[in-house]
Amino acid sequence: KWGIETAENDRFARFRRGIPPKTKGDYAFILHMIETLKPGSGRMAVVVPHGVLFRGSTEGKIRQKLIEENLLDAVIGLPEKLFFGTGIPAAVLIFRKRKTDDSVLFIDASREFVAGTNQNALSEENLVKIEQTFRARETVDKYAYCATKAEIVENDFNLNIPRYVDTFEEEDEIDLMAVRAERTQLKDDLVELEARMEGYLRELGYGA
Length: 208
What we know:
- This protein is an alpha+beta fold.
- The chain has 2 domains: 160 residues, Rossmann fold; 38 residues.
- The chain has a 5-stranded mixed sheet with strand order 1-3-2-4-5, sandwiched between helices.
- The chain is elongated.
- The termini are far apart.
């Protein structure tokens, strides 16, 4: 219950880009924060569930307008079980009032963390890498990608990180001839073991 009842007549015009769904107030808080930014130089960071990056309907339209206004600066994916009370992975959205270009930096930091029993954590090294990557705004293989506005438009304003950062790991090629030779050797070993077992049984008087 984030206050949808009064959103349509909001005197601060926070929801002129669209009114978020009644049961999902993520963009209500985001729009509120954006309206409180200092004109010309304001910046903000907000932690959100991943659904904010790709959900459609009204949320999709709000996301589209924020991108068209060139307010979104970066999307940073975080590991799962990082926050108390929830095990889901989250993301950090960074908005900036004044940008030098229309690119959006995507960082997939979800796979680099210190594993814990009930909760994971980001090490100092993990944090430094995120910060340095954010400042450099350069593509890093399997970790970060600086997308143009045109690329985001091509993806229908979907900000799902895997659409931009390819983390696919190629598996090693399987040497089928080596596998076949190993299988043949195992079959030969099995035949030998069966013969030895049969001999032991005969010595013990269990043979035919």
